[in-house]
Amino acid sequence: MPDAIESLFAAVSNIVRSAGAWPDGLQRAVSFARDNPTLLARRTFWDTVASHDFNDAFATAAGWARHSLSGIDLSGGWEFVTLTVGDAPEKFQLCHSGPQALAAEKPFRECMFGETLIGVEDLDRCSESGWWWRPDYTVTELFDGVLSYSRSAAPPFHGSDGYFLWHLFASLALVAPLSEPSFRELVLQGCERVYLLSGSGSLFVYLATVTKEGMQYERP
Q1: Is the Cβ–Cβ distance between 213 and 185 less than 8 Å?
Q2: Separation between Cα atoms, residue 220 and residue 215, nearest integer Å
């Protein structure tokens, strides 16, 4: 199971870095699932995903990201922002570290790029994180027939397949507004760069580095 989790988290990171404009990332997820049946075995689910219209849900989730990011008071040379996607029900919640010392950036990068999976204890060890939480949203607010879980209209449980879809979907929604130069400037203000990570809350994967010049998809 740990190897499977690492493979799925790595796939999220790789798809985010290689995806073009929406819905290219979603199409890449379907292709990945169909090419990796040992990791994502629910073929019928991915057939449904391939034919489903997620546009309204994606616009809403990208709006969550925009609202949460614009409310963060970033400062100093660098910070990191985590996206927690939760579990049962899946959610969307950002958290930022607070300003970090420039001298701490090198050990933080060594920690972040040392392994695919980054534990919350690693982040605590390699930074002076304050863990400032932003608003908490859940998939029930999307009213989407594939993503949403609610008492009135709950779709079937899709296991790792459904969780992988939401992790990727939420990660794509996080980076979407940051493709706009004016919004990046608004978010960064006095901060030079922000590292983006996404995951379950206890395990994260690196997504991108945000500067005023653009999104950088670094590799170890």
Answers
A1: no
A2: 16
